[in-house]
Fold:
Amino acid sequence: MYLIKSNGYDVEIGIKIFKSISSLITKKKYSSHFIICDENTFQFCLPNLISNCPKLREAHIIELESGEASKSLEFSAHVWQTLIENKADKNSLVVNLGGGVVSDLGGFCASTYKRGIDFINIPTTLLSMADASVGGKTGIDFSGLKNSIGTFTQPKGVFIDPDFLETLPSRHFQNGLAEIFKIALICDKKFWNELKTADVKVAAKDIIAKGVALKNKIVSKDPFDNGIRKTLNFGHTIGHAIESMLLGSSNELLHGEAIVIGMLIESHLSYQKKLFSKNELDEVLNVFKNVFQPNKINDLNLDSIFELMKNDKKSTNNKFQFALIDKIGSCKFDLAVSDLQIKKAIEFYNTSF
Ligand SMILES: NC(=O)c1ccc[n+]([C@@H]2O[C@H](COP(=O)([O-])OP(=O)(O)OC[C@H]3O[C@@H](n4cnc5c(N)ncnc54)[C@H](O)[C@@H]3O)[C@@H](O)[C@H]2O)c1
Structure:
C-alpha cells in the first residue's frame, strides 16, 4: 500500500482502497452519493466498488458515453441536471469512477455545482491513475478546444486499485504509459532508465506510485500552473494541437498517443535550441519507437497546428511558450520557439518513420 500526501488530500494506491473509501464516507456523513461512470466502468468496475463499499449501494449512478466527446458542455448539463433532480445539496459527494474523461468532467461538474461540492477520484485507466486523477485540474473541451473550460479544484481523495487495469484494453494501457514516460523524461533520469527495460504490466503498481509521487511533488510546489508545473506540459503544446486537429477524423488519436508525437517533436526543438544533444534525441526516438510504435501522420497540416496552438491555453500573447527538456530527467519552461523551428521539428518527426 502506498500513501502519498497531496494538496489537502491523500492518494492511496493498493488493495485496501475500498476500506479507505468507506471510512471517508462514514466520517463525512454525506447526505447523498453520486457515482459518475461510463458504460465500460459501469460494467467492469462498478460492481466491485459497490460490493466492497456498502455505503455506496444507494448511490445515484450517472452513466456517460465513453470517450472524449463526453467531456462536453452537453454532458456537464446532464450531470448538473441529474444532481438537481435528485436534490444533491452542498453535503453531497460525487464519486468519479473511470478514466481521465470521467475525472475531468466529474471534477468540473462537482466543482461548479452549488459553487463546489466534494468529489473523490477512483481512477480506472493507467493514464488517470498515474496522471489525470491527481493535481486538481478539472475541465471540459469547448468550441473544438481541449480543456478550454475548467477549474483547479482538489478532490477529497484519490483511491487507486491497479487491479482495475485487468480489463483495460492494451491501447489504453499504452496511452497511460506515455504520461509516465513523460514524467520520467522531465524530472527523473533513473526512473527513465528503469522504464526503458521494465515489464510495465508486472510492475504497474510501483510505476504508478512513482509516477504519482513525481507529479505530486511538482503540483504541490505550483498548484496553479504559474511556474514549475508548466514542465508537465512537455509534449503537450504540439501534442494537444495534433490531438485536436485529428479529433473526429478516421486518424483520431488517444491523448497519450498524441503526446508521444508531441514529445518527439518537442525533443527536436530542444535539439535545435542546443539544449539537448543528438545522442539524447536519438535515445528518446529509439525508446519511443520501441515502446509506442508511433506512426507518421500524413496530413499534419501546419496551418491548422499553428492556429490550434494559438488558441491553446499554454500560449500567451500569441507567442508559443514551450516546456523543453534540457537533458533526460530535467526540463525548463517558458521557452520561446519560432515558427520555423516548429516546422523543422515536425519535418524531423515525419522523416523519422
Ligand atoms: N486533469 C488532468 O490533469 C489530466 C491529465 C492528463 C489527461 N487528462 C485527460 O484525461 C483524458 C484521457 O483519459 P483516459 O485516457 O483515461 O481516457 P478515458 O477516460 O476515455 O478512458 C479510456 C477508455 O477506457 C475505458 N475504461 C476505463 N477504465 C476501464 C477499465 N478498468 N476496464 C475497461 N475499460 C476501461 C473507458 O470507458 C474508455 O473507453 C483526456 O481527456 C485528457 O485531457 C487530464
Remarks:
- Residues 91 and 226 are 31 Å apart (CA to CA).
